[in-house]
Automatic annotation (TrEMBL):
A single MF term (Gene Ontology): phosphoribosyl-ATP diphosphatase activity
Top EC class of this enzyme: hydrolase
Gene: hisE
Residues annotated as transmembrane: none
Catalytic activity from the UniProt record: 1-(5-phospho-beta-D-ribosyl)-ATP + H2O = 1-(5-phospho-beta-D-ribosyl)-5'-AMP + diphosphate + H(+)
Record protein name field: Phosphoribosyl-ATP pyrophosphatase
Cited InterPro entries: HisE, PRib-ATP_PPHydrolase-like
Family: Belongs to the PRA-PH family.
Primary residence: cytoplasm
Record localization: Cytoplasm
UniProt key word Amino-acid biosynthesis: yes
EC number in record: 3.6.1.31
Species this chain originates from: Commensalibacter communis
Pathway terms, separated by semicolons: Amino-acid biosynthesis; L-histidine biosynthesis; L-histidine from 5-phospho-alpha-D-ribose 1-diphosphate: step 2/9
Record key words, sorted: Amino-acid biosynthesis, ATP-binding, Cytoplasm, Histidine biosynthesis, Hydrolase, Nucleotide-binding
Length: 115
């Protein structure tokens, strides 16, 4: 099984590749073709892939759910590039929530009068 670090690295790596396609030739890069169409188009593609993904989940097709999930992640990264959001922005938000929103952390705070 892949470690969480390797999984996160591949997202950062793929983001950098997509970012490098921003002004690339749309005839040789699918990302460049999508990015040239603007953020409405990249959002629309993300939505389409997300719907395909949820259909595979709802119908119990685990193998297709994996491939559709990869499509969703790719299109999420394309959407971030077109909107000027970086993976670090999102990782920081996740870390912030991990420190403040966990059920266990909330319970610990509420039972500790000093918190
Ligand atoms: N991970 C992906 C990836 N996942 C999905 N897709 C593409 O996303 C598209 C989605 O499928 P669709 O059937 O909706 O495509 P379509 O009908 O051509 O869509 P339209 O844009 O015409 O609406 C397919 O053409 C897939 O090839 C991807 N295209 C590229 N990558 C990676 O992105 C990186 C850069 O790729 P290029 O930009 O092509 O150089 C490379 O590392 C690639 O491996």
């Amino acid at each position: 099984m892949m470690s969480p670090k390797i999984s996160a690295d591949i997202l950062n790596q793929l983001y950098e590749t997509i970012l490098s396609r921003k002004n690339a030739d749309p005839n040789t890069s699918y990302s460049a073709k999508l990015l040239a169409k603007g953020s409405k188009k990249t959002a629309e593609k993300f939505g389409e892939e997300a719907v395909e993904c949820l259909i595979e989940c709802a119908t119990g097709n685990q193998k297709e759910l994996i491939t559709e999930s990869a499509d969703v992640l790719y299109h999420l990264l394309v959407m971030w590039v077109s909107a000027g959001v970086s993976p670090d922005d999102v990782w920081q938000e996740l870390h912030r929530r991990e420190g403040t929103s966990g059920i266990a952390e909330k319970a610990a705070r509420s039972s500790d009068p000093l918190k």
